[in-house]
């Protein structure tokens, strides 16, 4: 959508653009981002911090952003009469909170240009490169194109129609496809208390794993954990095997800013006010009731005791648990429900300034089919918009 719109803006009457879409409409993947609100970009201003959000492929992203920095995305949507707002963590949404408003901008741009031809419910079956032309066979017809842009994804979020089709096509065109793994997904855990604390949210939670510490908001589900913090964790662990036979331990922190010293002081202050209170009543003033009631007994802590009968060492254990000792056991990720697939086309085979293939002239790869992966979908969407601009500019030069 974005590439076609950018090309159309060049007023290249001699350039005919075809969009082949296997779904019956545009933007099914865009529609679900931000829980149907479309978190279309991020307003972070610090370049280094922005690029740090790309776990894989940040060197290529940096080159693309030099041409089309995220701030230009904001201006572009504003110029198309989309009002936007910035929420916590610099996330940018339409004021309407409707992803359909973002998609509609592209639909209008595409509809008003006679030289953009759309092919809905059409699936690419194979591609051949012959004499500097692309022969594209679909389930409906065969076409010959001068340039081919692949802007798709693998098996991520299968409800949007994604599949493995382009895995083989990319290889048939001579490209190396790296190991594929699910990323930006929810995770299931071994601990059985999940169902009792489901939909309990922690706005500033932390996770410690593999000598790393990350923070964001997290929600417990019926069988595990989800939310932006978990999506980021799953991106870091994309190529780590996690299943019933290969579990993975992490440490969970209810609030990343609350230290051992904080809990120790708060608890002692509350004890002085009333030492006859049960331990659970004191802790309920610091953390959600369901969390305390369900979690601490799993660590052999008797929350029914009064604080007067609670030993100093027991208090220390509680403070340690709440500040960084709580352990969760990851045992599964739902393949096919992830938002993106990690890895794909090897970046060493891509021109960093144009996103054109180094192996096949006039073949371009964009968005998630490249070995680029960010901690959340809005950074992936930003690369989508920037990459589209870069490809459109390079195609423009060839059409003039």
Give a written overview of the molecule.
- With 400 residues, the chain is an alpha+beta fold.
- The chain folds into two domains: 2-182 and 337-399, 3-Layer(bba) Sandwich (FAD/NAD(P)-binding domain), CATH 3.50.50; 186-333, no CATH class.
- Helices cover 34% and strands 23% of the residues.
- The protein has 13 helices and 20 strands.
- The protein has helices spanning 2-8, 28-36, 47-51, 58-67, 70-79, 99-111, 165-172, 228-236, 260-273, 279-283, 289-295, 312-325, 377-399; strands spanning 17-21, 41-42, 54-56, 84-86, 91-94, 116-120, 124-130, 133-138, 142-145, 148-150, 181-183, 187-189, 201-209, 212-220, 224-226, 248-253, 326-333, 340-342, 363-365, 373-374.
- The strands form seven sheets. The protein has a six-stranded antiparallel barrel with strand order 12-15-14-13-16-17.
- α4 packs across α13.
- The chain is elongated.
- The two termini are 22 Å apart.
């Amino acid at each position: 959508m974005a590439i076609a719109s950018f090309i159309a803006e060049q007023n290249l009457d001699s350039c005919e653009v075809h969009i082949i879409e296997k779904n019956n409409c545009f933007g099914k993947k865009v529609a679900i981002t931000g829980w149907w609100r479309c978190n279309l970009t991020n307003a972070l201003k610090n370049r280094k911090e922005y690029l740090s959000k790309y776990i894989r492929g940040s060197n290529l992203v940096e080159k693309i952003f030099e041409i089309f920095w995220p701030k230009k995305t904001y201006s572009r949507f504003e110029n198309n009469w989309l009002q936007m707002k910035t929420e916590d963590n610099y996330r940018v949404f339409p004021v309407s909170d409707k992803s359909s408003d973002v998609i509609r901008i592209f639909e209008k741009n595409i509809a008003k240009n006679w030289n953009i031809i759309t092919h809905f419910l059409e699936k690419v079956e194979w591609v051949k490169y012959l004499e500097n032309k692309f022969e594209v066979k679909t389930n409906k017809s065969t076409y010959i194109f001068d340039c081919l842009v692949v802007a798709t994804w693998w098996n991520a979020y299968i409800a949007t129609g994604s599949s493995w089709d382009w895995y083989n096509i990319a290889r048939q065109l001579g490209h190396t496809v790296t190991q594929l793994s699910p990323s930006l997904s929810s995770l299931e855990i071994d601990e059985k208390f999940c169902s009792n604390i489901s939909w309990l949210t922690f706005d500033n939670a932390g996770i410690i794993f593999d000598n790393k510490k990350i923070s964001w908001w997290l929600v417990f589900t019926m069988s595990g954990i989800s939310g932006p913090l978990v999506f980021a964790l799953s991106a870091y662990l994309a190529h780590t095997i996690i299943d019933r036979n290969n579990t993975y331990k992490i440490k969970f922190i209810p609030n990343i800013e609350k230290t051992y010293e904080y809990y120790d002081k708060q608890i002692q202050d509350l004890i002085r006010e009333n030492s006859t209170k049960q331990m659970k009543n004191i802790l309920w003033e610091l953390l959600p009731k369901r969390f305390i009631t369900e979690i601490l007994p799993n660590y052999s802590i008797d929350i029914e005791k009064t604080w007067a009968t609670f030993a100093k060492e027991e208090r220390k254990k509680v403070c340690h648990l709440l500040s960084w000792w709580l352990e969760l056991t990851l045992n599964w990720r739902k393949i096919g429900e992830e938002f993106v697939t990690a890895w794909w086309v090897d970046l060493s085979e891509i021109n960093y300034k144009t996103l054109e293939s180094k192996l096949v002239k006039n073949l371009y790869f964009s968005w998630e089919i490249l070995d680029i992966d960010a901690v959340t979908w809005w950074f992936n969407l930003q690369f989508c918009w920037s990459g589209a601009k870069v490809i459109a500019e390079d195609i423009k030069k060839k059409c003039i």
